[in-house]
Amino acid sequence: MVIGMVLGAMVHAWRQRTINLSRRRIPKQWPLAYRSVVNSRERKVWRWLIRSFLDHHVMVKMPITRFTVPSSKEGVHHWFEVLRGVYCSFTVCTAEGKVIGCVDVPGPAGLSLSNQTLKHTLLSQCNIRYWVIDADQLPGVGDIRVAFLGDQAHMNHGREDLDSEFNQTRANLQAAVMRQRHGQSKNTDAGRLEAKISDVQDSFDSQLSTGWQPNSFVVPLDSRVGELR
Prior knowledge:
The protein is an alpha+beta fold. It has helices at about 1-25, 40-50, 75-85, 115-125, 140-150, 160-180, 190-210; strands at about 55-60, 90-95, 100-105, 130. It is extended. It is built from seven helices and four strands, in the order H-H-E-H-E-E-H-E-H-H-H. Helix 4 links the parallel strand 3 and strand 4 (about 130). Helix content is about 50%, strand content about 10%. The protein has a four-stranded mixed beta sheet, with helices on both faces.
C-alpha cells in the first residue's frame, strides 16, 4: 500500500510537471485572431481628434502607468498593480511626448462613475485634462483645444507647416517613383533610404543595449524623473 501511494504521488508529480511545461511552451499555432485596435465608435472619435490636434499626436489606449511615475519609491509595485489595467481610449501628447489630455469613449454599457472619478482625480493631479466624449455628440474643436491647451489653443497650430511638409514629402515620393521607373534611383534615393533605415535600426539597438525598459512606471530608466502634482 505504501509503495502504491509513493508511486501514485510520483506519477501525479510527473504529470503536473508535464502539464506546466506544456503551458509554458510556445505553440506552433497560436489560438488567437486579428482584431481592430478600435471599434466603430472609437474610430469616429479618433479621426475627429486627429483633425482637432494636427499639431499633436493622438495615441490609442495607452496605460496610465506609461506616462505617470510614483512620487516616492515606497509602494511602487503596489501602485503599479492597482493601475496596470487603467487606460484611456485616447491620449493626446506633444511631439516631445508630453501628455496634455486624455479622452474616453463610452461603450454600449457606458462608463462607470467610479472609473471616471479615478481617472479625473489622478490625471488632474498630474495637470492632465480628462474628457469623456460620446461618438454621437462630438463637441466643438475649439472647445476641446481650449480645455487641453489653454491660451495656446488659438495659436497657429502648425497646419501650414504640416501641409507644406506633406506636399514636399508627396513631391519627393512622386519624383522617387518616376526615377525608379526609369532605372535611375539605384545609386541615389535607394542608397539614402537604406542608410536612413540602418541609422534607425542602430538607434533602436542602442536603446535596447543601454537599459531600455518596457515599463517606466516601475523602472523609469528611459524617462526623465517626474513628480505627481
